Amino acid sequence: MTHHPDYWNRLYEEEGRPGWDMDGATPLVPELLELAQALGLRLGCSIVVPGCGYGHDAAALEALGFAVTGLDFAPLAIQGAMQRYGDRVVWTQGDWFRTHLGPWDAVFDHTCFVAMDPGRRPAYVEACAAHLRPGGLWMAALFHDVNGRPGPPHALPMDELRTLAGASFEVLHLGAASRSHPRRAGREYLMVAKKRA
Ligand SMILES: C[S@@+](CC[C@H](N)C(=O)[O-])C[C@H]1O[C@@H](n2cnc3c(N)ncnc32)[C@H](O)[C@@H]1O
């Protein structure tokens, strides 16, 4: 039932700091930003972080000079983000598939797409396209290997992502991540894709 906020909210309630939470931004924030800036991402543009959890990545992006919205449909995630980072970021409780906020210049996706049930992947790509301005960038950090564990997160092969994204995006970069957290080393990859006009 990962499509329902109660599933995630219960994990935040029971575990306080769930297994995916690294108590800080992923070290892939600067790596993904450097790639995207070389491909046209402008400093100061608007970025949405879907499935932002406790908001570490969103706050790191704001500190680097972007106008950031952190979105999550689990109330305890948004409460935790507000407690940790205050109002530097626009925090919003909402469903990525249904939000009417935006459009944004860019999406920063870390552990949200891979948390989706694989059957929802095409709809997720459509949502990314719908929430971006024409020419907007979708930045994503994904797993191609989840150590054989049942998801979420679910492994997403690079080729499959290229095909999925290709419906609405031009894939500008797709390649292995080099600055992963040690617990994730060798299992993550990065994508930067541009919404077709
Ligand atoms: C694995 S957690 C990752 C959280 C955060 N990105 C991090 O790395 O700490 C996935 C998050 O996505 C959120 N989420 C899942 N489906 C969502 C949806 N349809 N709309 C908004 N948030 C969603 C969950 O509530 C959860 O906080």
In short:
With 197 residues, the chain is an alpha/beta fold. It has helices at residues 5-15, 28-38, 56-63, 75-85, 121-130, 158-165; strands at residues 46-50, 67-72, 90-93, 104-110, 132-143, 169-176, 188-195. It binds S-adenosylmethionine.
Task: Outline the structure in words.
The protein is of the alpha/beta class and 197 residues long. The protein has one domain: Rossmann fold. It has 6 helices and 7 strands. Strands 3-2-1-4-5-7-6 form a 7-stranded mixed beta sheet, sandwiched between helices. Helix 3 links the parallel strand 1 and strand 2. The chain is globular, with a radius of gyration of 15 Å. The N and C termini lie far apart (35 Å). The mean pLDDT is 95. It binds S-adenosylmethionine (SAM). The site of S-adenosylmethionine (SAM) has 19 residues, from strand 2.
Q: How many strands, what sense, and barrel or not for the largest sheet?
A: 7 strands, mixed
Tally of helical segments? 6
N-to-C CA distance: 35 Å
Order of helix and strand elements from N to C terminus: HHEHEHEEHEHEE
Low-confidence stretches: none
Under the CATH scheme, which class? Answer: Alpha Beta
What is the residue-mean pLDDT, rounded to a whole number? 95
In percent, how helical is the residue content?
A: 25-40%
CATH topology: Rossmann fold
CATH superfamily: Vaccinia Virus protein VP39
Q: How would you describe this structure in keywords?
A:
single chain, alpha/beta, Rossmann fold, seven-stranded mixed sheet, 6 helices, globular, binds S-adenosylmethionine
